[in-house]
Amino acid sequence: MSNNLDRDIKEAADMLRNSNFTTAYTGAGISVESGIPPFRGEEGLWNKYDPSYLELNFFLSQPEKSWKVIKQIFYDFFDDAKPNAAHLALAKMEKQGMLSRIITQNIDNLHQEAGSTKVYEFHGNSMKLVCLACSRVFPHGEISLDHLPPHCPDCQGLLKPDFIFFGEAIPQEPLAAAYEAASKSDVFLVIGTTGEVMPANQIPPLAKQNGAKIIEVNPEASNYTSRITDLLLKGKAGEVMTKLEKELFSAPLHDD
Ligand code: APR
User: Fold this and answer.
1) Where are the chain's structural domains?
2) Given ligand 1 and candidates 43, 54, 102, 196, which is best to mutate, with the most ligand atoms within 8 Å of its CB?
3) Residue whose CA is closest, atom 30 of ligand 1?
4) In terms of DSSP bridges, do strands 137-139 and 124-131 run parallel, antiparallel, or are they unpaired?
């Protein structure tokens, strides 16, 4: 690891220690080391699949085609995916009182599986399927995806994953939590996101406008880096967050 990163990690740790309200804002990049591909970049899912299949109107008009893509890009990956060191570091920061909340764009449930409890999912969660006819909700593991599209065991209505499609409204609770975080955070820890997608990508700039320090964790520059980022910890989330966790929580060696 370059000395620059070690120096930057120390600076980030100081900022976090002095913060009374820290928000982690995460995107697909934090789950890449758990085996879940990102949407953009050279390995990006949108290079292989047409994102229009994830538009709400397309799903409603051609559910079988949409579900085929949904199964391949989400459900075929999620069951084996486990939280990585970055998810675990954030859960530890919450336990130690150094992280007030996570606003995630991810639907993979890995923050919760890592032990984080204050998680707000801007784009919903893939673990539940909802019936569009009778509104009953089912854990995704209870519904077979062998025949697509899946139908409600109760009323045969069409089942939809409980995540937010393009063109679908952001749920009120995470939206309010995100705007509140952007108004009261001293530090925003932005991990693994390009900042491409509206309206999620409005949150970090709003936090900056309200005086938050922006620490970014990403191996590459994002839409935020040259505009709002105060400190870029350049590297993979798992590696960087492991170093940050050590810097924050391993007691300094006595030098006497
Ligand atoms: N560690 C940290 N960041 C990483 C890693 C890694 N190991 N690998 C890749 N990245 C970074 C990439 O450099 C990129 O900036 O993660 C980001 C992934 O960007 P996207 O795939 O665009 O993910 P995200 O920003 O979360 O997408 C937002 O777009 O398709 C919609 O709803 C979907 O929530 C998603 C939204």
Assistant:
1) 1-35+83-123+170-256, 37-80+125-163
2) 196
3) 39
4) antiparallel
Contact partners, residue 155, CB within 8 Å, separation at least 6: 131, 133, 134, 136
Q: How do the pLDDT tens digits run along the chain, 256 residues long?
A: 456 999 999 999 999 999 999 999 999 999 999 999 999 999 899 999 999 999 999 999 999 999 999 999 999 888 889 999 999 999 999 999 999 999 999 999 999 999 999 999 999 999 999 999 999 999 999 999 999 999 999 999 999 999 999 999 999 999 999 999 999 999 999 999 999 999 999 999 999 999 999 999 999 999 999 999 999 999 999 999 999 999 999 876 666 5
CATH superfamily of 37-80+125-163: SIR2/SIRT2 'Small Domain' (3.30.1600.10)
Our answer on whether the CB atom of 218 is closer than 6 Å to any ligand 1 atom is yes
* pTM, two decimal places: 0.96
Residue 29, ligand 1, Cβ within 6 A: yes
Q: Tally Cβ neighbours within 10 Å of residue 117.
A: 11
Atom of ligand 1 nearest to the CA of 193: 25
